[in-house]
Amino acid sequence: MSYSTRIEQIAGHLNYPKGLLSGHVAIITGSGQGIGAETARLFANEGAKVVVSDIDASKAKDVTNQINESGGSAIAVPGDMLDSAYIDELVKKAADFGNGKIHIIVNNAGYTWDGVIHKMTDKQWDNIIALHNTAPFKLVRAAASYFRVKDGEPRNIINISSTSGLHGNAGQANYALAKAGVVGLTKTIAKEWGPAFGVRANTVAFGHIMTRLTAAKEDGAFVTTPDGQKIALGIPQAQKAGRGAGGEHQDIPLRRPGTATEAASSILAVASPLFSYVNGQTISVTGGRNM
Q1: Which active-site residues does the annotation give?
Q2: How big is the CA angle at 96 (ends 91 and 97), to the nearest 5 degrees?
């Protein structure tokens, strides 16, 4: 096929009447709220059959209901990503929902559990590494037979990282290491599953996005670990105020944080056929910070 013919084919398909992801089955972890929920909605709007995975069953069901009531297609499969049995269940139910196929995995589930190095506990360390590294690996491994296929349909995996993983961040040794780790996982998937099966794998690394992780800690948001421990989320107001003239956005060229919808839109872009030749990359979504 000539280059000009290929360009004509792409141009001819830039209008997707059934959506950019029509016919695709997508697992989105941590999609009961925030960026994950917005990603689920956008994927469904573009024709994907969405599997909403979240530890909070009620939130997962709410997102699923919203999608289905809006004319989309989604199922909720709630559970704990630190439970290997749940990961196997998630893959099985996704494949059943997709009539034996899974096309997209978005490894989005996660939270922060901050602490300076000399005070960080083993539990803080192990929990964050398990959630952001081990769980995504286990999900990809469990879904391998649905990606290592040659049926002519696109497959891709999107791992969510952070500027903490690209540049480090004081008080986040565990999170920074974990988010750096998913970059390596992404590149390995691209190199192992790209040549024979055409699987694309990319990382999306977020900067300051307005979520419960970047809201004021004083707002009281928290997550509860499986053993019942509550982990406070957010950034202390004093820390935000201490960033000097211009405030917490002074080093962002756009001078504002991103919205959850903007973050989700970047994930949709990477998942879409418009990024069909983008593979093994880390896409920074930061408003220009750290460029």
Answers
A1: 175
A2: 95
In whole angstroms, give the CA distance from residue 98 to residue 107.
18
Q: Quick check: 240 and 247 in contact, CB under 8 A?
A: yes
Using CA of residue 43, residue 225, residue 144, residue 88, what is the dihedral sign?
negative
Are 112 and 211 within 8 A, CB to CB? no
Q: How far apart are CA 288 and CA 284, in angstroms?
A: 9
* The CATH fold of domain 22-211+257-285: Rossmann fold (3.40.50)
Q: What is the mean pLDDT of residues 124-138?
A: 97
Contact predicate 211/35, CB 8 Å: yes
Contact yes or no for 105/201 (Cβ under 8 A):
no
**What's the Cα-to-Cα distance from 142 to each of 98, 105, 145, 156, rounded to whole Å?**
16, 11, 8, 15
Q: Indicate whether 135 pLDDT > 60.
A: yes
For residues 108 and 36, the answer to whether their CB atoms sit within 8 Å is: yes
pLDDT of residue 112: 94
Alpha-carbon separation of residue 187 from 36, 107, 171, 280 (angstroms): 22, 14, 27, 5
Average confidence (pLDDT) over 93-113: 97
Domain parsing of the chain, residue ranges: 22-211+257-285
Q: How far is residue 236 CA from its own chain's centroid?
A: 25
H helices of 119-172, in order, are 122-129, 135-142, 144-147, 163-167
Measured distance CA(39)–CA(48) in Å, rounded:
11
